[in-house]
Every structure is written in C-alpha cells, then in structure tokens.
Known about the structure:
Component of the Mediator complex. GO terms for molecular function: transcription coregulator activity. The relative contact order is 0.05. By secondary structure, the protein is mainly α. Helix 17 runs antiparallel to helix 18. The chain is built from 28 helices and no strands. It has helices spanning 2-16, 18-35, 45-51, 56-62, 68-88, 92-114, 119-131, 135-153, 162-172, 178-185, 190-198, 204-213, 216-230, 235-255, 258-269, 272-281, 284-296, 308-328, 333-339, 344-351, 363-377, 384-389, 392-411, 417-424, 436-447, 454-464, 473-498, 508-515.
Amino acid sequence: xxxxxxxxxxxxxxxxxxxxxxxxxxxxxxxxxxxxxxxxxxxxxxxxxxxxxxxxxxxxxxxxxxxxxxxxxxxxxxxxxxxxxxxxxxxxxxxxxxxxxxxxxxxxxxxxxxxxxxxxxxxxxxxxxxxxxxxxxxxxxxxxxxxxxxxxxxxxxxxxxxxxxxxxxxxxxxxxxxxxxxxxxxxxxxxxxxxxxxxxxxxxxxxxxxxxxxxxxxxxxxxxxxxxxxxxxxxxxxxxxxxxxxxxxxxxxxxxxxxxxxxxxxxxxxxxxxxxxxxxxxxxxxxxxxxxxxxxxxxxxxxxxxxxxxxxxxxxxxxxxxxxxxxxxxxxxxxxxxxxxxxxxxxxxxxxxxxxxxxxxxxxxxxxxxxxxxxxxxxxxxxxxxxxxxxxxxxxxxxxxxxxxxxxxxxxxxxxxxxxxxxxxxxxxxxxxxxxxxxxxxxxxxxxxxxxxxxxxxxxxxxxxxxxxxxxxxxxxxxxxxxxxxxxxxxxxxxxxxxxxxxxxxxxxxxxxxxxxxxxxxxxx
Length: 525
C-alpha cells in the first residue's frame, strides 16, 4: 500500500515539480532499503544528513507510521524547521515567538498528548530532530536570544542553546531525566541541574487572591513586574501566569474594577511579546469576551463619580487592548460579532476613522459635537458637565467628526492653525489619548484623497511628535502609535513620492523615524 501510494505521488510530482519528484524518489528508495520497510526505524545517519536541509520532503512519508515516538520526532522537527526558516529570514519577532513556543509550549503539548511514552523512547525520538537542526540557523537564533539576555541582565551569559532550553523544559515536566540532555547534545549538564532546581511552580489561585486583595497604591508596581516576568518565565510558570492574567481580566471586567483593569490592560498592550505569549496558551476571543462586555455596559452617569477623566482613561486603555489584539493578530470581525454583534466594539472597529456628515447626525449627536469643539478650542476647556453628558463610547465614535470639522474650520479661516493645534493637544492628555487612534485613522484616510494637505499634516505631526507628553501619557501614546503607525507611514511615504513641493512646516523625517519602530506590529505575524 505504501509503495503504491508513493509511486502515484511521485508520478504526480513529475508533472508539477520534476526535480522534487526525482529527489524524493531517490531518497525514498534509500530510506526504505535501509529501514527494511519497518515503520519504527530511523533512517541511516548518512541519509538523515543528506535530508537535513529539507526535512519536510519526507515528513509525509514518516507520517504513515502511527507510532507515538515518530509523532514526537516529527512535531519537534517541524517546530525547529519553522524556527530555522525565521532565522534565515532574520525575522526577530518570529524568532522570539517560535523560540518561546519550542521552549515553553511544545513540552506542555507533548506532556498533554504523548506523556505515556517511556523516557528512553523520548530520548531516542528527540535525538534525530535536535541534531538535525540547521547549524547556520541555530547559530543565528542562539546569538539573537543570547544578546537579548545580555541586554536584560547587563552582563555576559553562558552560551545559549535553544535545544538545551527545550530539553530543560522536558526535564522539568518529568518527560526525560536530566542525564538525557547530556546524552542527546553532549557537554556538561550541571548548569541544567542548577536551573532545574531553581524553578518553582506558580500557584495561580494564590496569586489571584493576593492581587484581588491588594490596594491600588501597591498594585501598580506589582502588576507591572508580574506582566514583565511572563516573558522570561519557564514552561511551568509561563502558562500559569497567562492563566492568571486572563482570569484577572475576566474578574475585574465582571466586577467593574476599572482602575486595576486599566493598569493590567496597559501593561499587556505595551508589550507585543507578552501578547504573543498569551496566544500560545489561550484563544484571543476568550481573552476579549469579558473586555467587550465590560465596555458595552460601561457606567458613566454615576452621581457619585468624582473624576470623569479617570473614567475616560480607564475606558480608553481597555479599548486600546482590544484594538491591539484585533490589529496585531488580524482577528476575524465575524468572530468578534459572534460575541456581541451590536456591541460598541464592533462599531468602533468598523468605523473608528469615519467622520459623519453634519446633516446625518441626530440632535443629541450634534449637541455633543458642538460641545466637544467648544471645549477643545474655548478658553474654558473641557468641563465635567461635558464629560458627564457624553459617554466614552459616544465620544470615541465622534472623534473623527470633531477632527474633520476642525480642519474644515481652519481651511475656511474660521480659526488659525495654532489655535487648531493647541485645541487638539487636549487629545494628548491621558484621559483622551486613546482617541488619537480614531484621529489618525481619519487623517490617514483623508490624506490619500485631499488636495489641501498642509493642515492635516500639521495635525498629524502634532499628534505623532508632540512637544510634550507626561510620564502617564507616554506608554498610552506608544500603544496608539503602534496600532496606527503602518497606515500613517504608508500614506506619508506616498506623499513624499508624489509631491512636487512639500510643506516646509512638516518634519517628514521626524514623522517617519518615530513610526518606523512600530511598523511590524500590524504585519509581523
């Protein structure tokens, strides 16, 4: 049966990919000859060496075997093959992601589904894929990861080997003994013993109980350190830490503990690495569901509310976390709609850059629009009464229209450019900073079509390269830029390419330099 299937497949490849068919036929002949047609046998080392660079060509052949030891070997080989591919492409983000998957997530998958295999069989199954990793790719991965470690700890570390870290995780889970690492890779495994002894499991329920009881003053420092530690945690602690974060997001959303929810949302959103790690363990829609529900039932008319600015800040940061997941992982709007099709979040994600014609607004929306424009550009500023009368949801959807009307007023000389920029600098206050995302979306869309681009570009510059940002505003501004950078960069690049004469008031190099570090956020995965 196997020979027949192989023959048919090779015949098919002769039509679609003749060189591959010839290569595969030759390797298959050697493989079956050396293995005596026994499915559980490994190929001859010489043949394995030949196939090292392209293990995917024969992976389908080995999948004919149903043995668990082959499943482990093929799974590990496939993971390292993906890591090698990212290394050869110099894709740092994907290198980090695949490294984390191999070291922390893959051992847990093996433990969950294939833990009945004896330790000696694991050792046998792991030796081939680990020793067959492309050496050039492995050197790139190890050098990049080791450099990151040196930066973190500010001192040279022992040579890093991602294979060693993978075996350490396997040993921590009891899937292999410590001596197996030495036998598989060679060398001294005393450092493995030291690291293994230093790892302690994370007791999630105790951590959650402690954080729930902690006062707000102490909480900010503790939660920042907790989220930071997730990126460097081992395989046992990392998954448990992600579970803690997801559970806290759910609990605080249900309890309307918005201040703590905002702080946790900010710490997650500001770290792309932590977001990536979270999705190694949990479904993104599971993470977002309580947050979307929380925003949909947001309270803003509480008579006892003293600080409306905090209310807006809390709302904005939770919204930015949802947007970060949506844009970074290219989530499906249909899946989000299935959580709540009429939710505010659905409206925002589909229309955050849409400015509505004045005539299409109802009386209430028109009044709110007038109130916000007056608050931004009048000397009295934005009052509590204004914020009390307008929910954060309505405000977030209204921002593009506010910017549109402000630009139109400036173009018609109803206000000068300095007044316009001064008013829109309110957006850089922490309580309104999340709305800059909607402003950037509208400006980006309009710059593709507008002939008069000087005023929009000056607003864009003021929002992207502000003259001043408070310490509280800096991380929020970073999150906003990360989400909006790619579209703004693309339209700015197009303006530079097409324009015959550029406004001398715009620092194009400054805009591009500020956006460049964030360009990978929406296209790297």
